[in-house]
Specification:
Blueprint: H1 32-38, H2 49-59, E1 66-71, E2 77-81, H3 82-98, E3 106-110, H4 115-126, E4 130-134, H5 140-150, E5 154-158, H6 162-166, E6 177-181, E7 194-196, H7 197-203, E8 218-224, E9 232-237, H8 241-250, E10 259-262, H9 269-281, E11 285-289, H10 295-304, E12 309-312, H11 314-323, H12 325-329, E13 338-341, H13 348-357, E14 362-366, E15 376-377, E16 391-392, E17 398-401, E18 414-418, E19 428-429, H14 433-438, E20 440-441, E21 444-453, E22 459-464, E23 469-471, E24 474-476, H15 478-485, E25 491-501, E26 505-514, H16 522-535, E27 544-547, H17 561-569
Parallel strand pairs: 1-11, 3-4, 3-5, 5-6, 6-7, 10-11, 10-12, 12-13, 13-14, 26-27
Antiparallel strand pairs: 1-2, 8-9, 9-19, 14-15, 15-16, 17-18, 18-21, 20-21, 21-22, 23-24, 25-26
Helix pairs in contact: 2-3, 2-9, 3-4, 8-9, 11-13
The chain binds adenosine monophosphate.
Adenosine monophosphate binds near residues 269, 345, 369, 447 and 449.
């Protein structure tokens, strides 16, 4: 279905704001040096994201400005000024130093979306550590894989999540300290290596000197999934703040006076690059809502906090769509002036619906964990082509290329590739340098996505080039799910695919062959799905399971996911010459 381009008013019709410019057209004159000059840098030299996002505002007289408006699941609201954020992060920096944390040490945070999560990430950065936020829906296996691989020294978690950590604690030899927050105020009986976060925080001094990190020092790592193997840690440096600051302004249209809500969880890169770094480096007030999706509650959050800029994801927009226009009509959304979306294809119907029901245009943009910041965007001052990801940001060269690295003509599908060198590009996959190097070919960074470009330079997403699944905005590696499936005593073999879904873009579908003597039943399906949900993650379990007597394999014994997917979707099966007899 084709949709009309949504024409923006001409620039002269805009209520002129200094950053509302045609950024796609300004790519030629852009220089990263200008953005580097906007960063203040540490007083004694060096660059630290914590300083750029928090301390700097206090130093420049904005300490009294609200940095965070936090709303709990229960509806209580806490606000923090930049000065309070500085004190909290200084104390946590001291607390971590007191535990022996030195530059480059990994500090992981496994918390609900509470203020302590935000301040621990920044305390870590200010102490020179590398922060690793974990999604609070993770089960023990997902936690173990990430904390073990990163060899994190400290983990900050909560009394509500600690049981999942305790299950795998003895598989984490490098982990020295587990700090446990207790917002729930439940009785807490620390086990060996555990201590109370609040007590340690209370003892820590607020007099703190930021570690003099250099731009190239590592700052944060996010685990991301591939087709094979366990998730790998994409590592970013402090210099990434340049890309995050720049794009928060040009792609999210953030001005210092905005009140901004990014609905992403900091367990994923959107929740840090745009739920922490970009907006706070511009001194914007951020809203964080702790609870899960709920249409009416979300609208009320927008109204209650006077949100002006809103960054969300296609699955959420489709869920709002399902909840209907009436859900929106109960709240006053008139202050919301700019909406953006990321994470998976934003279908034109969702954009058209939001225009009608909310009176807002969602501006889609594209990027990934590895790119550290938005790369392709529908800018505020640009016509929106519903269904297109937009055009490259100033400072990035994007292209659609063929297998030899040559750009293909407009309209032709190929690999979406970026010219390496933008400041927030990831620096490595943790302890997997070879894999990192393999992502660069013929002078391009190969994103793993398939796309095409139209004559006007708008990019259109086609799909993933690999077997990775995108479900409700979360990237899930089939191998992770298959590994969890085969741990169930009834499962002999398992293969997992992404099955198209009108709401979640894809759902995880598992094909399972059972061990001899196990009888297929719906109850067993539910039990297996629950098993994966509890062990791996609440977002990464198979919503559909099909029992098969055996799984199709190549002669070398590799399960052919591609074939299962083709059969599921009724597509041509392709080359099956390597199929086991
Ligand atoms: P992640 O690294 O988890 O942020 O996932 C990145 C992947 O999500 C990209 O490589 C794309 O496959 C997908 N993605 C992100 N943004 C978009 C978008 N605007 N349209 C289509 N796919 C997207």
């Amino acid at each position: 279905m084709r949709h009309e381009t949504i024409r923006k008013p001409s620039l002269s019709e805009f209520p002129v704001a200094p950053n509302l410019r045609d950024w796609a057209a300004e790519r030629k004159t852009f220089s990263w040096d200008a953005i580097a000059k906007e960063c203040r840098g540490l007083p004694g030299g060096g660059l630290n994201k914590g300083f750029e996002c928090i301390d700097r505002h206090v130093l420049e007289g904005r300490g009294g400005k609200t940095a965070l408006r936090w709303e709990s699941k229960e509806g209580t609201i806490e606000t923090f000024t930049f000065a309070q954020a500085k004190e909290a992060t200084d104390r946590i920096g001291n607390l971590l130093r007191g535990l022996g944390v030195a530059r480059g040490d990994r500090i992981f945070v496994f918390l609900e979306r509470v203020p302590e999560l935000y301040w621990t990430v920044f305390g870590t950065l200010k102490a020179g550590g590398v922060a690793g936020p974990l999604f609070s829906a993770f089960g023990p296996e997902a936690i173990r894989d990430r904390v073990a691989d990163s060899e994190a020294k400290v983990l900050v978690t909560s009394t509500t999540l600690i049981d999942r950590v305790r299950e795998i604690r003895n598989e984490l030899p490098a982990l020295q300290h587990v700090l446990v927050t207790n917002r729930a105020r439940v009785p807490f009986f620390p086990q060996a290596g555990e201590s109370s976060f609040e007590e340690a925080y209370g003892r820590a001094s607020a007099a703190f000197e930021i570690e003099p990190t250099r731009p190239e020092d590592f700052s944060i790592m996010h685990y991301t999934s591939g087709t094979t193997g366990k998730p790998k840690g994409a590592v970013h440096w402090h210099r990434a703040i340049l890309g995050q600051r720049h794009t928060a302004r040009v792609c999210l249209d953030l001005h210092p006076e905005d009140v901004y809500w990014c609905t992403a969880d900091p367990g994923w890169v959107t929740g840090t690059s745009y739920g922490m770094f970009g907006p706070w480096s511009l001194g914007v007030t951020q809203v964080v809502y702790e609870g899960p999706f709920d249409a009416e509650r979300w609208y009320s959050v927008l109204e209650r906090h006077g949100v002006t800029v809103w960054y969300s994801a296609p699955t959420a927009i489709r869920m709002l769509m399902k909840a209907g226009k009436e859900a929106a009509s109960k709240s006053d959304l008139s202050r919301v002036r700019f909406c953006a979306s990321v994470g998976e294809p934003l279908n034109p119907e969702a954009i058209v619906w939001a225009q009608d029901a909310l009176g807002k245009t969602f501006h889609d943009n594209w990027w990934q964990t590895e790119t550290g910041c938005i790369q392709i965007s529908n800018y505020a001052a640009m016509d929106v082509r519903p269904g297109s990801m937009g055009r490259p940001i100033p400072g990035t060269e994007a292209a659609v290329i063929d297998a030899s690295g040559k750009e293909v003509p407009a309209g032709q599908e190929g690999d979406l590739a970026l010219k390496p060198g933008w400041p927030s590009m990831y620096r490595t996959y943790w302890k997997k340098k070879e894999l990192y190097d393999s992502r660069f070919k013929n002078g391009w960074y190969i994103t793993g996505d398939r796309a095409w470009k139209d004559e006007d330079g708008y990019f259109w997403f086609v799909g993933r080039a690999d077997d990775v699944i995108k479900t409700a905005g979360h990237l899930v590696g089939p191998f992770e799910v298959e590994s969890a499936l085969v741990e169930h005593p009834a499962v002999a073999e398992a293969a997992v695919i992404g099955k198209p879904d009108p709401e979640r873009y894809e759902i995880i579908k598992a094909f399972v062959s059972l061990r001899a003597g196990c009888v297929p039943s719906d109850a067993l399906k539910a039990e297996i799905a629950n098993f994966v949900r509890n062990r791996l993650a609440a977002h990464a379990y198979p919503r559909e399971i099909e029992f098969l007597p055996g799984l199709p394999k190549t002669r070398s014994g590799k399960i052919m996911r591609r074939l299962l997917k083709a059969r599921e979707l009724g597509l041509p099966e392709g080359d099956t010459s390597t199929l086991e007899e």
